[in-house]
Amino acid sequence: MKRLFMSSPFSCTALAAFFAVCLTAQSFGQVFNQQRSVGGIAIDGNGAVAAATVEEGQRLAEMREKALADVPADLQAYTNLRAVSLKQLEAELAKCAAEGLAIPDEIKYLAGLQRVEYVFVYPETNDIVLAGPAEGWRIDALGSVVGATTGRPVVLLDDLMVALRTSKASRLEAISCSIDPTAEGIKRVRSVLSRMRTVEGRRPDERPIEEAMGPQVISVTGVPVTSHFAQVMVAADFRMKRLAMNFQQAPLDEMPSFMQLISTSRRAVKNMTPRWWLATNYEPLARDAEGLAWQLRGQGVRCLTEEDHFNAEGQRERSAKAGKLAQQWAQTLTDRYDELAEHDSAFGQLRNVMDLAVVAALIEMEQLFEVAGLEAPQMLATTKTDIYEAPKFVEAQASFIRQRGNWVVSASGGVQVMPWHVADRTEEVAEIGAIREQFASDSGQWYRQ
């Protein structure tokens, strides 16, 4: 799980201040030139992760917008249900490979799908079809490909292929990202804080704290660390912590940061080491009696919390408890996740990759490729996925706010996806069989509507 931000006491007769360790915002022009930024973060050639500036985001968005091909006319309008045939998609990928052609945008963006809601299996035509809401696309301020009118991120072929290729492994190993401080860094921070003094009215110096903490290490499990899928997880968790620690203004009204909740609280907060993480949030999958029609239901993502503790050696010791303010902030994020995802594409992208991980686990668990009689070597192995800079570490940045008391604040967390647990919970719903019939005819096209 991820360790991103840290606050700690700075006490004197009249002042107790908090600091929060956050990701620094630096310029990574080379990365942007390579169009390898995802969800408002940038990663340099050394693996350092940072927030993209507004100017860099605009430049990236302009570059990607210019690179986009025109959206086919029949894909422009919004529809509640558009279907993508994996059989025909496989044929298109094979054709591109045989003719040495680049994969067209409409295939990269899966005909503008914004979520995968249904999985339909057609043994009679050897096909599996993915369906969900869709429309034409554009580039948003973070450089993400999103729906032209809704602003919701589109589902990417690249993420689908990564999900399918890692579906077996995800049964035993969670798909996750984590950014952790070193135990040595924690110990150094404690040593620095024990020696620091301040004067009333004078802002403390953040530099000794930042230098003491040092780089925090990023780890990714379950998917390749250089994949777009991995970058999406890191970006969403990055931005969640920035919202929590008030380093980034929430795009929604009445969504205060965790630090704002602390500053306005009338009660003393006994434990200031919350740990938040983003996890799956699905209802049982709906299926028909034959197991040929499946529906993903539920919001998809939720925010969970508990407390952390550090021992004398700077190592984390987890607790099953959670503070009330931390719970309040996590519940607000969960309750408003749909809204947040529409305003910040990093969160919408996270839900998309979670959907794909669940779909891939379902296909593997139910052996749907075998049921359909479908072979897909391009998607499962041959077609190359995009390669991004591997996120390796983040630097620390400290800031202070006034607060009564003497606390240690450390915001931890991450992203954890256990798709087999979701795919294993199902209930029979007869109505989805009728939806499957809408796409039963094999038109020979890779998308249908």
**Annotation, overall tally of beta strands:** 21
The helix-and-strand class reads: alpha+beta
- Poorly predicted runs: 1-35
Tally of distinct domains: 1
- Molecular shape: globular
The gyration radius over C-alpha positions equals: 23 Å
Strand content: 15-25%
Q: Largest sheet, described in full?
A: 10 strands, mixed
What distance separates the N and C termini? 41 Å
Discrete helix count = 16
Structure characterization notes:
With 449 residues, this protein is an alpha+beta fold. It has one domain. The protein contains 16 helices and 21 strands. It has helices spanning 29-33, 54-67, 86-99, 105-108, 157-165, 183-195, 207-213, 228-244, 258-264, 324-335, 337-343, 345-365, 368-372, 377-382, 419-423, 432-437, and strands at residues 2-7, 17-19, 41-43, 48-51, 79-85, 118-122, 127-134, 137-139, 145-147, 175-180, 216-221, 274-281, 285-287, 293-295, 300-310, 316-318, 393-394, 400-402, 409-417, 426-428, 447-448. Strands 1, 3, 4, 10, 11, 12, 15, 16, 17 and 19 form a ten-stranded mixed β-sheet that branches. The protein has a seven-stranded mixed β-sheet with strand order 20-13-14-6-7-5-21. A two-stranded antiparallel sheet has the order 2-18. Strand 3 (41-43) and strand 4 (48-51) form a beta hairpin. Helix 8 packs across helix 12 (345-365). The chain is globular.
